[in-house]
């Protein structure tokens, strides 16, 4: 009894000490010299609430029952810290920028601030955590029991239930005092965090002390202990790959999703950079915590009598060997583990319960949503305190009902599997913009149903909450709905089975529903905020007074309505309210008007959300709303760009149509030309054949006739040759294989030469050429022969096609803007507008074909002029047919 009294006294002293530490920390923080309270080390130590009584006592029990498998519980979080710290970093950044107060808050805020989702997550978190709190109470009472039992022959004299009740009440008091002292916007609790850090050291020290005692005091040194371990059953436990994988996954997922872990890791985090230290320091802490687990388990099994509870070896080993001081320390370690967990878990859960369940109900019941005053603060604090009491009470109730019989580890794992259901929604929310509220809701519901059906309910034992017939034959007699053999897959470990099905169905449903559904504007906004948190969250800000709100509303309205319009609206409203200046009070009337105005531009839902954000002082910053407004502006700009693009496309289409028409026309002409060419070829060929046959076969021909026939053959052959020459010339020009023979000469000479070649040799020299030679004294350096070829062609065409009588051709040479222009204008009836478009194409022949060539002349001219760097074109409006040759003076020189 004496020991028990000492124990109670030690407990009280310890708790008082924690109170003092927490008080001191709060005071220091308040007075502004609490910098040391926030350091990477304290942060890392506060993460140790992951190691609860389950870890302190339970790990040894776990090792004694299942060998090395207990390590998975440490490996999971270590992997997260070392390998996936960037996920944590993103969570921490989001937590800070969005003023997140809990995991329920984060999830609901991400999915469009859905309170329904928040309520769901809160309830699930409470259901998942209650057994865990019960577990802590159970471990504390068990350890009390051990102490009392060890001294009293007549069995336990301590009433377990009342021990648990006292502990629960003490913890509630502590949490209320330090967890709800101030209603800080940041939800930081300096006192609590520092107390937890102290407890982290106490439990580590206690476990190490017991470990050292066991190895060197009981085991006889390191090597002997190792031999004992080798000889024990623990080394021989088979490692099941599927269980290891699922347990590592589970503990990693739980590490991210447990409400209390979220509280210390994200909500209480002061600086992202702490994660850098924690990423190695916390795994190191876990390693040290797990160091002596196996030796303690092995020696406990060896030394203690058969049937001792392995979950309490950490305590019973020192007690059994008479080391009461050490046992006391070990007890304090376990006590620390249990209390820190209960404190943080109840704090985290109470925030969720109060914010998402109690407050909405209170606000709607009192209709007091609009009057934000000190009253509401008091109500919030009261609701938090009640929630803390309720959460701890639930844990106590579970403890009473379950009778505290189950092994610590299995309760812990069931809890882990429950909260792990948050993982897909959490990760999907911060990495995938397409994730929707419906998807989140559906995924979570399915995951939790499967978890409850396959793991939670059966854990109470068959026949208690789930009947034996359902276990054997499936729900509603459906064989594929057996709790431990979904879809007929039998023989799996029940835990692996439940984790695999619940998480995969959860993820699948979440993804599919998200893909099928469509996010609301607010969801979309929040999705962008969360996924792109690094771009958005440089500067979190809040709103204090109503004047500031008006200003924010003004800035936002300006962005959306335009500066002038927004100012007019605000000024008008200010006048109406009788307020001086241009900022009206944000009265409900005014807000309604503003919302209506805004919804004209951005749609009703977004306008509502935007005003709600500013006036409600919620976690989206003005800056982010501006981002949305900017996005709208960008979208408008984009759509006008699209319009311009479509106009451009219409233009291109028109051009294409024209080109197509031209092509069709040309193709028709080409066909006509081909038949023309064959005709052209055939005519001379036919006469050549006919006359050569006459020459060959008729012996009686006179000499004169022979001469006549052979000269016809000769002329026809020349015509053929010319046609072929033209074709060849054109193809050479077109392929760019032509070699220019550049010389210097005078225009007048070139024209002289061209006129004489074009007109002589022709039997019909009816064309009169008019020139002004004085204008033609232009020196130039170019391929003179090719230039002459162009002139010959143009003069020849006038000769062939000018239908006036008498036919005249005027050649005008002039200089303009550094270019030499030579115009060939005849007095014929000219060329019609449609024909002008095609005469430069090859094979193009227009008008009557009486004297025509093959339609290649102008095409050749165009190619030549292009090679010489100039051009030839039709000159409309000159009376007859008119062509202009242009040659840049860079290639010609004038002496004028
Ligand atoms: P070709 O080599 O057969 O003479 P061109 O390409 O030089 O063909 O000319 C194409 C068509 O342009 C000719 O078929 C003719 O109908 C028309 N053309 C060219 N020059 C004149 C002109 N001075 N007056 C009237 N029509 C002309």
Automatic annotation (TrEMBL):
Principal cellular location given in the protein's record: membrane
Documented EC number(s): 2.7.13.3
UniProt GO MF annotations: phosphorelay sensor kinase activity; transmembrane transporter activity
Highest rank taxon of the organism: Bacteria
Protein family per UniProt: Belongs to the sodium:solute symporter (SSF) (TC 2.A.21) family.
Pfam families: HATPase_c (PF02518), HisKA (PF00512)
Reaction catalyzed: ATP + protein L-histidine = ADP + protein N-phospho-L-histidine
Name used for this protein in its record: histidine kinase
Cellular compartment(s): Membrane
Keywords, ordered alphabetically: Coiled coil, Kinase, Membrane, Phosphoprotein, Transferase, Transmembrane, Transmembrane helix, Two-component regulatory system
Entry coiled-coil feature ranges: 628-676
Membrane topology: Multi-pass membrane protein
Record organism: Shimia gijangensis
Boundaries of every Histidine kinase domain copy: 676-891
Top EC class of this enzyme: transferase
Transmembrane segment boundaries: 6-29, 41-64, 70-88, 116-135, 163-180, 192-218, 244-262, 282-305, 325-349, 379-399, 411-432, 444-466
Gene Ontology CC terms, in alphabetical order: membrane
